[in-house]
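Reply to dn_fold:

You asked what the input looked like. This is it:
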Amino acid sequence: MLIDNLINELEQGTGYPITISDSCNQIEIINTAKRLMTEKSITLKKSPSIFLDKMSVQVVLAQDIDDSTKEEVENRFLSLTGLNLEIK
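and this is what came back:
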């Protein structure tokens, strides 16, 4: 498998064992969502909610945003985390 070969190469190059966790760092995912909102001056009503069964994070906004900003933030979040961002 390609990923196994890459991990082996990285382990040999660094001299450290590398493992991949079965779970994600939920705190970092929430922080990523908050950071993206802050970068666009978007205020949240409450903290983001994670739905791992749907591979998504939901944020509820305290303000309206235009469609292009919404799409930009959603795409950036997906590229950073691999999770979908639901903006409400």
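The beta strands are 49-51, 56-59, 84-87.
Hope that clears it up.
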